[in-house]
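We now fix the convention by which a protein and its fold are recorded. Here is one such record, which you should read through line by line:

>
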Amino acid sequence: MLILAFESSCDETAAAVVRNGREVLSDAILSQADMHAVYGGVVPEIASRKHVEAIAALTDRALTEAGVSKKEIDAVAVTYGPGLIGALLVGVNFAKSVACALGRPLIPVHHLRGHIAANYIAFPELEPPFIALCISGGNSLLADVRGYTDMSVIGATRDDAAGECFDKIARVLGLPYPGGKPMQDLAEGGDCTKYPLPRAKIADSEFDMSFSGLKTAAVNLVHNAEQKGETLDRSSLAASVAAAISEELVPRSVKAVQRCGYRTLAAAGGVAANKRIRYDLEKACRENGIQLYLPPLSLCGDNGAMIGCQGYYEYLAGTRADMSLNAYANLEI
């Protein structure tokens, strides 16, 4: 089965062709990161307009690279939430037009379900059930993946996402957007114990997280040093931030696996590319006898292949949408 998939939830426009959920024939992506870097973050209106400009050509490119014609496509899948509403609407409306023109089924896909499905592409042997740690610029949560389309959130951030925390601290340090990679590079050689930063504990939920206090503490450290004319050890601060974020994510993930009686943990999302988090996850899982799946860096960020993969399983489960399909900025997994 060939699925043509679209992703446009933030600042990457993507179109991909996926066969039977696990074989990626093409994955065309156009990133707007350099364009938004001057603003220090994604400007929704600009992102939406650039999706409009790019999506048709990317579709042609994806089909050409896959070596298939439009008539060979069996279904169309698209991210319909969560994300930037204007950006999502571009992908949703384009996918509806393609599905209508080809007379093919339209499959709505949750963005985070797509990130989880990226692991199926990288690891053909992976099957539910397992715990998924989803960490990105807009989301940080633990999902109980009981089946390919049967999953629920068992813990999530109460405020900021881990990726947002990296981005905002990077900005006050004068680093470019997006901040994850520059923060990781800056942290090389830094002392992760030099700056004591808060690790949140949520009284009524052991699996919920909070990153707003950490973000505020790090930002205040930078501002106080500037106001007092003190020299800030930027490398150690970056390392300390990465350690604090990792220590919120990793122990909760291990405990969630154990609590659910599973032996498998999968990471997903852009922040899953962070070296410190990957190292800590590998160490913790090895010590606790947990099988860990970490997607390659190319599948951590937003892409169309993951939507095509999850779209296949949604199709098998009977998930369909008609021409009334809408986009949603917030959407339960």
